[in-house]
Write a structure and sequence with these properties.
Layout lengths: L2 H18 L7 H20 L2
Length: 49
């Protein structure tokens, strides 16, 4: 599928979820944990080179 078409479809789904009130909204703690996880994964990738 064309990447721009895929983004368009995903965007519509995200907007619909927010409108219905079923979309996930990050808490500060969830965002903090996700950032740590991503940073750790990034460092492992760099260290593996």
């Amino acid at each position: 599928m064309d990447p721009s078409k895929q983004r368009e479809i995903a965007s519509k789904g995200g907007r619909a979820a927010h409108t219905q009130g079923t979309a996930h909204e990050w808490t500060s703690e969830e965002a903090r944990q996700a950032g740590r996880k991503g940073g750790a994964a990034s460092r492992q990738h760099i260290d593996a080179k």
